[in-house]
Structures are given as structure tokens and as C-alpha cells.
């Protein structure tokens, strides 16, 4: 099991169990974490699974691919820590990962 | 691809009212296959879609992605599936009307009257709603009070170019729509400013080159940043607040703007379908599973837009629904005609229609 924590814009914390190989978006949807809309079901074509990765985790989650960068253009309030959660695949090193959910999914 | 059978927006030169056996609303995979199934039973179709191209979700959302559950195609991309469906429908010469949204659907004597937002009118014996998740609609950025500016200062598409003449125009985005309108409005606007979160554009290389030229000669201004606020009153935009890097700092500042064009991609919204008097169940149209007919006889609903016990929103289910719908539509378009079950493999009558013999 890989523990991941989602922090909603209003501060509500959701710590849930994910599985290796699952995406961060799938983990959020499976546990009904509010604020991850994931309209396209993980195809990197909607930008409604936007999250901010806490600085301490940025190295382990890696950088967005070119396709993900392009799709981030459609997200709102994009920051240096922005990622699309359907493009982050869980692996043992990500145990304890913390991400924040933006106020709006565009 | 069978582009030659695609007709443009249909305003110019189109007759006041187009008569057709069947009118298909939505050119997604299921609408395209409906052309084929209707064609086999001698029903000609016109097809309308708000997008400027066929393929629905497959072409708009995932053209390059492989689909693994289309029977007999272990893998096929969204665009390839669209191209093949067009090829398969080709013998039946459908007429496409792109870039138009169906607004109204009314029952009249002997069929239905349908009108689009561009004023194209149709009279059809049967209507097939293959509208998927609804109309593809531009996304509205979540800025406070933006609704109040829409239609007066904020637009998601350029319908009347005069609304931008001699105005301070601000365009947000980095894709083809944003760049195309930057290039097209620059000659007529007072000023054009392009705002994008990064100095990289995912648009056609030719447009990017043209943009770079306009930027270097100063005819267009580029600001790297993101919108945070709209300023103005009673629908009249005065300026927008932008946050972005200025000399190494992340700052918020105002930029003059009388017109704003935000391009944040498309999302599917049910749209006018809700007003057509059909039985809806959580935004889906309820149908029976023998004919896929709605609560209104003569109006069918197939593909992602419909619901019935056991419904699966899969392309293959939509194909099956199209086949049964066509049988039922035949009874309306050709009342009294005896329908004979035939295989395409062996029926010379079907093969003649397909143009293979
Ligand atoms: C990322 C992704 C991956 C998918 N993968 C698969 C898969 O592997 N297998 C599978 O079977 N399915 C898959 N699907 C689902 C599949 O794409 C849909 O089931 C399919 O597109 C439905 O087809 P449709 O023709 O019913 O509707 P759509 O493809 O939604 O097309 C409907 C069209 O109707 C138009 N329209 C609606 N209302 C109006 C109006 N009033 N006026 C004018 N035009 C209108 C819309 O603009 C749209 O173009 C996937 C979907 C997504 C988003
Ligand atoms: S779920 Fe659509 S981009 Fe991630």
C-alpha cells in the first residue's frame, strides 16, 4: 500500500491507500476525494485532475511530459508545482506523497 | 479521408428549409455508423455537429489514443476509427453541417422541424439524437463575475468580427484557436494582447511563426501570465488583472481590455436537448431497447446520450443501437414496406447500395 494525502482548497485532508501502478487520479476517484473531476478518465485530455505537488515531493514525482504541459495550458491557476494527477503513477517511493487540490478545476 | 463529402457551415447558398428522411444530431462515432445503418434501409441522412469536424469525442478528445475494444480491431486510434466510419458511410452520401448547434426540435405534420443556431432549418421524417455527452462547448474560466460580461465583452468564439473592430482585444491561450484569432484580429483591432502561461505555443508551426513576426515588429503584445480578475461594470470590460513574472518577480497588475477571448479548450454540456420535451433521466434520454426510440415516436436516441437498464457507454453498444434504430426508422419512413432481413455478405440488393457490385 502507498499512502497518499490530498489536501482540499478548504484545508480538508484526505489520507488514502493507493496501489502501485495506479495513477494518483485513479486513487482519488476510487476514494471519492472531492475536487478531482477527471472528466476524461485519465486520457490527459481534460485538465480537470489538476493538483499541486508539495515541493518536497517534486523530485520523486518527476517533471510533466510535453503532452501534460500542453494540457496544463487548459488548467486554471497553474503554478510551478502543477501536475495532472492522471499522469502520476504510484510507486513505492511515493509512499507518503502530499498534493494539494486547486480551488477550481477548469 | 472522405473530406469531399463534407459540406461547410451551410449558411451560404443553403435552401431555406432542407428536407431529409433522417436528421442525425451529432457526428460522433455512433452518428456516423447510423448513416451506414440507415443507408442500408434506403434512408438518406443529413448530419449536424457543433464541432468543425466529424468524430465526436474520438476526434476531439483522443485522436491519437488507441482504443482496444472495437470488435475486430485489436487496436485503433480515435482518428483512425473516425476515418474508417466515414469511409464506410461514404456510399450513402450523407450531407454534413458542421459548426452549428441544433437549438430546437419541434413536431410538425409528417415529421419534425429542426433549427440550428445559424438559422439552418430542416424538415425530417425521423430524428436521430446521437449527441453523446452533449454539445462540445468552450470552457468558461472560473473568474468571479465572468457571466456578467459574456456576450458583451467576453466571447468564446468570434461570430461577428465587427464586435472587435477598434477595440483593445485580449486573447488568452496558447493553442490554435488563440493564435488564429490573434492573427486574424490584429489587422482590425485597436490592439491585440496575447496572454499565455508560458512562452511556448501548441499550435500549427505556421501560425507560431506568423505570431513571432507580429511580436517582433510590435503589432501584437505578448504577456506571460494568467488571468485572476475581470474589472468593469454592467457587462463593459475595462481591464483584466494578470498574475505573472515581471523582471524575476511574480506580480499582479492590470492590463486594459475591452474585449476578452479566453480559449481553455472544450467540455461537453447537454445544451438545448434539455428543452426538447424528451423524457430525461439524469441528463440522458430514456429509450426502449427494441427500437431505441425516445418518449416521442419518430425521435430516436443512440450512443452515449441515451439510457436504459444495463446501458454501457461504449462505442460498440452505440453501433448495435444504430442497427436496431434503423430497422424501426424504416417503418416510419417507408410505412407498409415489408422489411426483409439480409446479410451484406450475400444480398445483391445491399451490395448494390454499397456500390460493390
Ligand atoms: C478519453 C476517452 C477514452 C475513451 N475510450 C473508449 C474506449 O476505449 N472504448 C469505448 O468504447 N469508448 C471509449 N470512450 C467513450 C467513447 O468515446 C464514447 O462512447 C463515444 O464517443 C460516444 O459516441 P457518440 O457518437 O454517442 O457521442 P460523441 O462522441 O460524444 O459525439 C456526439 C457529438 O454530438 C455533438 N452534439 C451534441 N449536441 C449537439 C447539438 N445540440 N447540436 C450539434 N451537435 C451536437 C457533439 O458536439 C459531439 O461531437 C472514451 C472516451 C474518452 C473521453
Ligand atoms: S483526468 Fe483528464 S487530464 Fe487527467
Automatic annotation (TrEMBL), chain A:
<keyword id="KW-0408">Iron</keyword>
<protein>
    <submittedName>
        <fullName>2Fe-2S iron-sulfur cluster binding domain-containing protein</fullName>
    </submittedName>
</protein>
<dbReference type="InterPro" id="IPR012675">
    <property type="entry name" value="Beta-grasp_dom_sf"/>
</dbReference>
<comment type="similarity">
    <text>Belongs to the adrenodoxin/putidaredoxin family.</text>
</comment>
<dbReference type="GO" id="GO:0051537">
    <property type="term" value="F:2 iron, 2 sulfur cluster binding"/>
</dbReference>
<dbReference type="GO" id="GO:0046872">
    <property type="term" value="F:metal ion binding"/>
</dbReference>
<dbReference type="InterPro" id="IPR036010">
    <property type="entry name" value="2Fe-2S_ferredoxin-like_sf"/>
</dbReference>
<dbReference type="InterPro" id="IPR018298">
    <property type="entry name" value="Adrenodoxin_Fe-S_BS"/>
</dbReference>
<dbReference type="InterPro" id="IPR001055">
    <property type="entry name" value="Adrenodoxin-like"/>
</dbReference>
<dbReference type="InterPro" id="IPR001041">
    <property type="entry name" value="2Fe-2S_ferredoxin-type"/>
</dbReference>
<keyword id="KW-0411">Iron-sulfur</keyword>
<feature type="domain" description="2Fe-2S ferredoxin-type">
    <location>
        <begin position="2"/>
        <end position="105"/>
    </location>
</feature>
<dbReference type="Pfam" id="PF00111">
    <property type="entry name" value="Fer2"/>
</dbReference>
<dbReference type="GO" id="GO:0009055">
    <property type="term" value="F:electron transfer activity"/>
</dbReference>
<keyword id="KW-0001">2Fe-2S</keyword>
<dbReference type="GO" id="GO:0140647">
    <property type="term" value="P:P450-containing electron transport chain"/>
</dbReference>
<keyword id="KW-0479">Metal-binding</keyword>
Automatic annotation (TrEMBL), chain B:
<dbReference type="InterPro" id="IPR050097">
    <property type="entry name" value="Ferredoxin-NADP_redctase_2"/>
</dbReference>
<keyword id="KW-0560">Oxidoreductase</keyword>
<dbReference type="InterPro" id="IPR036188">
    <property type="entry name" value="FAD/NAD-bd_sf"/>
</dbReference>
<feature type="binding site">
    <location>
        <position position="62"/>
    </location>
    <ligand>
        <name>FAD</name>
    </ligand>
</feature>
<feature type="binding site">
    <location>
        <position position="49"/>
    </location>
    <ligand>
        <name>FAD</name>
    </ligand>
</feature>
<protein>
    <recommendedName>
        <fullName>Ferredoxin--NADP reductase</fullName>
        <ecNumber>1.18.1.2</ecNumber>
    </recommendedName>
</protein>
<comment type="similarity">
    <text>Belongs to the ferredoxin--NADP reductase type 2 family.</text>
</comment>
<feature type="binding site">
    <location>
        <position position="102"/>
    </location>
    <ligand>
        <name>FAD</name>
    </ligand>
</feature>
<dbReference type="Pfam" id="PF07992">
    <property type="entry name" value="Pyr_redox_2"/>
</dbReference>
<dbReference type="InterPro" id="IPR023753">
    <property type="entry name" value="FAD/NAD-binding_dom"/>
</dbReference>
<dbReference type="GO" id="GO:0004324">
    <property type="term" value="F:ferredoxin-NADP+ reductase activity"/>
</dbReference>
<dbReference type="GO" id="GO:0050661">
    <property type="term" value="F:NADP binding"/>
</dbReference>
<keyword id="KW-0285">Flavoprotein</keyword>
<feature type="binding site">
    <location>
        <position position="57"/>
    </location>
    <ligand>
        <name>FAD</name>
    </ligand>
</feature>
<comment type="subunit">
    <text>Homodimer.</text>
</comment>
<feature type="binding site">
    <location>
        <position position="345"/>
    </location>
    <ligand>
        <name>FAD</name>
    </ligand>
</feature>
<feature type="domain" description="FAD/NAD(P)-binding">
    <location>
        <begin position="21"/>
        <end position="309"/>
    </location>
</feature>
<keyword id="KW-0521">NADP</keyword>
<dbReference type="GO" id="GO:0050660">
    <property type="term" value="F:flavin adenine dinucleotide binding"/>
</dbReference>
<keyword id="KW-0274">FAD</keyword>
<feature type="binding site">
    <location>
        <position position="136"/>
    </location>
    <ligand>
        <name>FAD</name>
    </ligand>
</feature>
<dbReference type="InterPro" id="IPR022890">
    <property type="entry name" value="Fd--NADP_Rdtase_type_2"/>
</dbReference>
Amino acid at each position: 500500500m502507498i499512502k497518499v494525502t490530498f489536501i482540499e482548497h478548504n484545508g480538508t485532508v484526505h489520507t488514502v491507500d493507493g496501489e502501485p501502478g495506479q495513477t494518483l487520479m485513479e486513487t482519488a476517484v476510487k476514494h471519492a476525494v472531492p475536487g478531482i473531476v477527471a472528466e476524461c478518465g485519465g486520457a490527459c485530455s481534460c485538465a480537470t485532475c489538476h493538483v499541486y505537488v508539495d515541493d518536497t515531493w517534486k523530485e520523486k514525482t518527476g517533471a510533466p511530459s510535453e503532452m501534460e504541459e500542453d494540457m496544463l495550458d487548459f488548467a486554471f491557476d497553474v503554478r510551478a508545482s502543477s501536475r495532472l494527477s492522471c499522469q502520476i503513477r504510484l510507486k513505492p517511493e511515493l509512499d507518503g506523497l502530499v498534493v494539494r487540490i486547486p480551488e477550481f478545476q477548469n | 479521408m472522405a473530406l469531399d463529402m463534407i459540406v461547410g457551415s451551410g449558411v451560404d447558398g443553403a435552401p431555406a428549409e432542407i428536407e431529409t428522411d433522417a436528421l442525425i444530431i451529432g457526428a460522433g462515432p455512433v452518428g456516423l455508423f447510423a448513416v451506414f445503418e440507415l443507408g442500408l434501409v434506403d434512408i438518406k441522412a443529413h448530419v449536424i455537429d457543433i464541432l468543425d469536424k466529424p468524430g465526436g469525442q474520438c476526434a476531439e478528445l483522443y485522436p491519437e489514443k488507441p482504443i482496444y475494444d472495437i470488435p475486430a480491431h485489436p487496436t485503433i486510434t480515435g482518428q483512425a476509427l473516425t476515418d474508417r466510419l466515414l469511409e464506410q458511410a461514404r456510399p450513402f452520401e450523407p450531407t454534413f453541417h458542421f459548426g452549428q448547434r441544433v437549438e430546437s426540435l419541434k413536431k410538425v405534420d409528417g415529421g419534425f422541424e429542426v433549427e440550428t443556431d445559424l438559422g439552418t432549418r430542416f424538415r425530417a421524417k425521423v430524428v436521430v439524437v446521437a449527441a453523446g455527452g452533449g454539445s462540445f462547448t468552450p470552457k468558461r474560466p472560473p473568474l468571479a463575475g465572468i457571466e456578467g460580461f459574456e456576450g458583451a465583452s467576453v466571447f468564446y468564439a468570434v461570430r461577428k468580427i465587427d464586435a472587435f473592430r477598434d477595440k483593445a482585444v485580449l486573447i488568452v491561450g496558447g493553442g490554435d484557436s488563440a493564435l488564429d484569432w490573434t492573427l486574424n484580429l490584429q489587422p482590425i483591432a485597436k490592439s491585440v494582447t496575447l496572454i499565455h502561461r508560458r512562452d511556448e505555443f501548441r499550435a500549427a508551426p505556421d501560425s507560431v511563426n506568423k505570431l513571432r513576426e507580429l511580436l517582433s515588429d510590435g503589432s501584437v503584445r505578448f504577456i506571460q501570465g494568467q488571468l485572476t480578475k475581470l474589472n468593469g461594470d454592467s457587462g463593459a470590460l475595462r481591464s483584466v488583472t494578470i498574475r505573472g513574472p515581471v523582471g524575476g518577480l511574480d506580480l499582479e497588475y492590470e492590463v486594459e481590455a475591452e474585449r476578452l477571448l479566453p480559449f481553455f479548450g472544450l467540455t461537453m454540456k447537454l445544451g438545448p436537448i434539455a428543452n426538447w420535451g424528451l423524457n430525461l433521466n439524469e441528463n440522458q434520454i430514456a429509450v426502449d431497447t427494441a427500437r431505441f426510440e425516445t418518449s416521442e415516436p419518430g425521435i430516436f436516441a443512440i450512443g452515449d446520450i441515451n439510457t436504459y437498464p444495463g446501458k454501457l457507454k461504449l462505442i460498440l453498444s452505440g453501433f448495435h443501437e444504430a442497427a436496431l434504430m434503423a430497422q424501426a426508422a424504416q417503418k416510419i419512413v417507408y410505412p407498409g414496406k415489408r422489411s426483409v432481413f439480409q446479410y451484406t455478405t450475400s444480398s445483391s440488393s445491399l451490395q448494390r447500395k454499397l456500390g460493390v457490385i
